[in-house]
Design goal:
Elements lengths: L7 H11 L17 H4 L1 E9 L5 E3 L5 E5 L3 E9 L7 E19 L3 E6 L1 H4 L6 E2 L15 E5 L6 E9 L4 E3 L14 E16 L5 E17 L9 E5 L7 E2 L16 H4 L1 E6 L5 E4 L4
Antiparallel strand pairs: 1-4, 2-3, 3-10, 4-9, 5-6, 5-7, 5-8, 5-11, 6-15, 11-12, 12-13, 12-14, 15-16
Keywords: Signal
Protein name: (Atlantic silverside) hypothetical protein
InterPro entries: FAM78 (IPR029638)
Length: 284
């Protein structure tokens, strides 16, 4: 006697029943995803800028140093089983969209760190990679790689942080004199940070989340005062918190390739009277 196959509805019911554990609770009901694009899930995303104000260090008689609060981002990711033999890297890519960084020296003029192509509008953004692991911001906590095929869910966290800790000379940077003349520091930089998955073989890129953030500061300096009492933070005491965009933005081409911002920046001296002078040329 030949037995007929159970109808599809019965198989579905049986599959659901098998998802119950001994306590009678459903473990999971998941349809097989069509592709990696459909399957990757951002379980949790947290981003913030620390609430502490920028700190100022006057320990050196040559330079003023300051340290800004940290921007931080971390995401918990779930990747269901990957059927294909493919490798995906998930992590953070960051680019600078805008930079103003001016150090004023009384009536002498000002020095400024500049990104010429960004300043002149030739590019929308410039990579803020570590300069080694393009296009990634870094490759320690910042990225994770999934190599298929896999039989189980992959769960992991990718995190990054960023802040500024520069040195600014007390004296005019094009002078041999170290006489303190620094009177003001102003900085205003904007960044876009993307949580991204990239297929290592095909370079297919999936933007999972987009974050915008900004760091501003104004330090007033009285060069006539003794070392240790010259500088004061005027604004802001607390930074604006990052914004997670409801709609992801595409990544501009220059955000993923050389040069990165550190290698492309140039230090200019712009005197009140006279022509600008390149103090430190770009590395790239």
């Amino acid at each position: 006697m030949r037995l007929s196959s159970p109808p599809p509805e019965l198989w579905t019911l049986l599959w659901i029943v098998l998802q119950f554990d001994a306590m009678g609770c459903i473990q999971s009901i998941r349809y097989k995803p069509k592709s990696f694009r459909d399957s990757i899930i951002v379980l949790e995303l947290n981003t913030s800028i620390d609430s502490n104000p920028t700190s100022i260090d006057e320990a050196s008689s040559v330079v003023l140093r300051y340290r800004t609060p940290h921007f931080r981002a971390n995401a918990r990711i779930l990747v269901p089983p990957v059927a294909a033999k493919e490798t995906w890297t998930i992590g953070w890519i960051q680019a600078c969209n805008h930079m103003e960084f001016y150090n004023t020296y009384g009536d002498k003029g000002m020095s400024s760190w500049e990104l010429p192509d960004l300043r002149d509008g030739k590019i929308q953004a410039i990579s803020d990679s570590d300069g080694v692991n393009y296009p990634w911001y870094g490759n320690t906590t910042e990225t994770c790689t999934v190599v298929g095929p896999t039989k189980k869910d992959s769960r992991f966290t990718v995190s990054m942080n960023d802040n500024f800790y520069p040195s600014v000379t007390w004296g005019v940077p094009v002078s041999d004199s170290n006489v303190p003349q620094l009177s003001s520091i102003r900085r205003d930089q904007s960044f876009t940070t993307w949580l991204v998955a990239i297929n290592q073989a095909t370079s297919e890129t999936l933007v999972l989340q987009t974050i915008r953030w900004r760091m501003r500061l104004h330090i007033q300096v009285d060069p006539e005062k003794p070392l240790g009492k010259r500088a004061a933070l005027k604004e802001p005491v607390a930074q604006e918190q990052p914004q997670v965009l409801g709609k992801n933005e595409p990544i501009p081409p220059n955000a993923t390739v050389k040069p990165n911002a550190n290698d492309a920046q140039v230090l200019m001296w712009r005197p009140k009277n006279g022509d600008p002078v390149v103090v430190i040329p770009p590395k790239y």
